[in-house]
Amino acid sequence: MEAAGTWALLLVLLLLVLTLALPGTRTRGHLPPGPTPLPLLGNLLQLRPGALYLGLLRLSKKYGPVFTVYLGPWRRVVVLVGREAVQEALGGQAEAFSGRGLVATLNGTFDGHGVLFSNGERWRQLRKFTTLALRDLGMGKREGEELIQAEARCLVEALRRTRGSPFEPSLLLAQATSNIICSLVFRLRFPYDNEEFKAMVRAAGGIVVGVSSPWAQTYEMFSRLLQHLPGPYTQLFGQLRTVAAFAVQQIQRHQRSLDTSGPARDLVDAFLLKMAKEKQDPNTEFTDKNLLMTVVYLLFAGTVTVSTTIRYTLLLLLKYPQVQERVQEELTRELGPGQAPSLWDRARLPYTDAVLHEAQRLLALVPMGLPRALVKTTRFRGYTLPQGTEVFPLLGSILHDPEVFKQPEEFNPGRFLDADGKFKKHEAFLPFSLGICWVRPCPPSGPPTGLGVRMAGPAPSVSPPGKRVCLGEGLARTELFLLFTAILQAFSLGNPCPPGALSLQPAVSGLFNIPQAFQLQFQPR
């Protein structure tokens, strides 16, 4: 027994020495305070997988709005909590904080490629190209709005075919939003009954759930160990392969039909033309890998994020039927029957706009924000943060801050209305992180034409590629408004369960907050 105890002690001491000797545990700079990490475990005792975000919020009460934690023994992260800290970093020192941090569950697939997970010159080139290409394809312009309106009509017709029967709407909503991004990326719209399309959409949803699961949060802490062991990540990798195979099929189709003398039909065409132009440049970033990873990101992000927000907003209207009635009364009063909502109408629908904003605030779709990284050693609030330090900007801490939003866990669209009932902006409304939108649609300046189509206003402005803001923010806002208003104009929502039985708590909370599944009935109005 004594010998066994001695060997166990020696093993623990050996592991401790190895842990302290590994890179990433010694160079601390002058970092913010935080709980002392344990050998092998880091701050696992304070940060339970499955409740990582809540654990970080608890630590902020002790260590303040800027503190340091260790996800496992090797991964050091500086956490920013609250509007002031996040705004000071991502706004005041945007360039220094513009690097992309690690999402370990996706790192093996993306490996620093594509517009989301790249850094440095690769990121700058890909971001500028993608921004301008999507703008040229109509985003922020009337063409982009018409594309979304057309998909909204298809969605409404599909919902009519349910004949008021209860069903779980996740897949159909995700197919609608996926078709919008597919129209821009591939110039293709897929029927809702297309099996390959449904498989891709389901896989995209599985990716978002997978990277948010308790297992994924464990993997973020111990990826160096777990990547060599069998586990649930095999399912996630399979879903990534499904989305990638769908993307590869469409890219190959474009390669066969590309007209090098003509204008780009879509994003893939634009990328292939850029590749052809720079094929002699050995340092070009316009490569097959960057194309594939950019398309895969756009597919899974464009498929699930907006549809999840719409689904959560519909859940809120079931929970609060008086809100649904008020939205529909406003739509009837301002638009009347048969007039398709347009962005021009947003100013005339302040309560509807307030409901969408409050739903996004309450959901806090990306509560921890996407990880950032310091591109250079930076002084921040008296601390020295070494180059490469990862940063978690907790967006949920802003959206649910009781000092900014009174009773933040309550659903109250009135937060976004002034005393006269007009929509009012809130500087703490940051569901897409901090920064200006990559394409800011300008309100149309012309009057309605006889066909009910309003002439487009000035061309949209495009942000410079210095801040790592959400590429699709403008697209997401437009989709949310047009799809939501089209649904509420056409249907009254019902549910077999009483409102009190519906839960607003997320089914999964990690990188994303995923709402509970629920049945929905669409009764034609």
From TrEMBL:
One of its GO terms (molecular function) is heme binding. It is found in: Endoplasmic reticulum membrane; Microsome membrane. It is a peripheral membrane protein. It catalyses: an organic molecule + reduced [NADPH--hemoprotein reductase] + O2 = an alcohol + oxidized [NADPH--hemoprotein reductase] + H2O + H(+). It holds the Pfam family p450. Keywords: Endoplasmic reticulum, Heme, Iron, Membrane, Metal-binding, Microsome, Monooxygenase, Oxidoreductase, Signal. One of its GO terms (biological process) is prostaglandin metabolic process. The keyword Metal-binding applies. Its EC number is 1.14.14.1. The keyword Lyase does not apply. One of its GO terms (cellular component) is endoplasmic reticulum membrane. Gene3D superfamilies: Cytochrome P450 (1.10.630.10). Its cofactor is heme. It is an enzyme of class 1 (oxidoreductase). Cytochromes P450 are a group of heme-thiolate monooxygenases. PANTHER family: CYTOCHROME P450 2S1, CYTOCHROME P450 508A4-RELATED. Belongs to the cytochrome P450 family. This is Cytochrome P450. It comes from Balaenoptera musculus.
